[in-house]
Amino acid sequence: MAFIKNRTAAEQTLFILAVFIVSRLIVGLLGIHLNIRALNAYWQYLDLETLRNHLLTGIWYDHAQPPVFNLFLGFVLKIGGSHSILLFALILKLISLTNAIFLFSIVKKLTRIYFLPMMVALIYLLSPATLILECELFYTGFISFLLLVSLFYLIRLSESGSGWNAFGVILPSTLLCLTRTVYHIFWLFVVIALLLFYFRKKAIFNTLILASLAGIIFSGSWYVKNKILFGKLTASTWLGMNLARNVFHDHTIKDSSRIEAYEPFSKISVYRKFVNPQFENEYKGLNDRDLLREMKNDSFINETAVSYIPVSDQYLSASLKYIRNHPGAYAKNVIQSSVLFFAPATVYSLAVGQADKIKTYDLIYSFNLTHFSRTKQQRRILLTISAIPKIILYIFVFFILVRYSIKSRFITPWNLFILITIGWVFGISSLFEHYENMRFRFETEPLFLILAAQVFSIIYFSKRSKPNAPLQQSSDNH
User: Fold this and answer.
1) Is 62 in the same domain as 144?
2) Which domain holds residue 287?
3) Under a CB-based contact definition with an 8 Å cutoff, are residues 390 and 343 in contact?
4) Looking at the domain assignment, is residue 339 inside a domain?
5) 239-265 average pLDDT score
6) I want to staple 34 with a disulfide (CB 3.0 to 4.6 A). Which of 89, 264, 419, 466 is the partner?
């Protein structure tokens, strides 16, 4: 601690950089590297030929996913050429480093405890989940980055009436809606409404309205595009299939005439009897590679095929009917998903193989007891036990912060943004997803660390008779 106390912010940032470099070298020596298979196999990604040579066409006719991450993939493939794999690995690691530096900067603004900013940054940077998920070619770290950028500029907006800060809050939030369907445009509406209410008497109000309108129009245009081209006012047509994975989890249906008897996201040929043979006709000639082919990249399922639209609709109808008839069974699955939300992110199915390479570290750091499991039942039990520390910690942090806010009759806009976002992601992922919730939580983990740092400050200063100090650092400094 003494080492940190006498160091400037620049020196501490250099120390974070040094830890980042050393830790990534060690992780590389342990065999944890970028899994490039994702580029070929992941459902969310367009065919490689499309990404390389028909990017804008593929994006325009993609009904399954918002456009931003596929744009990123295509852009890197175009500029990286034969060095694309190296470039992807470098970018994903730099995103982790950038997130850590944002954490350092934000916590330094919001607290007065000299060792806390670096400690929080290193907790994130050295997390087994960070080390592993930055080696997965996915948008996990990128989502955290956008959330941190929005939060950073929201704090600055509270300090200064600069119009650029207003756009700095809204633009990353808009990009979230255009990257990940969890961040529905309704989430953006809620965030904007609360910000407008909070800043209604500030000089920045008109600029914030302008930025908000731009964000809503920009993100909403994707919904409108899908409505015009595919008849669906949504960012993704996979809603029914996603919901079915949670609704029918652990519920076997043997009647092959019912679509729920089949695993969601199976090959489109599995569903042919549920789809009108004429459905694809109006889409022929538009983008056959992505809309009509069953497979992509030779051997992987092409989940952007247009026939998944009616398939997903039927899954949605079947799911809603089942929920109405068996609300208790669905509630049980939602509770399971809610618990999974707090499980270590390293139990995410696509991270397990990498986590085994740092098993002892993951066990100690993440309390990931699933490393001891030998059967499916053991894994379920240990997974639940592994989630308990996070559940307790989240409840404790939220309780202290809410109690403090009630007592002071004030809550900062950035804490409101964090609470709404974590609550939104928890709710949506618990209702609609199964066994990926821990990764969804990890995307918001930097926001939670910021809340936890403030709660630590509240407790720290309350013992020194300065109860109002911790959450006023930002405004006191300007």
Assistant:
1) yes
2) 239-325
3) yes
4) no
5) 91
6) 89
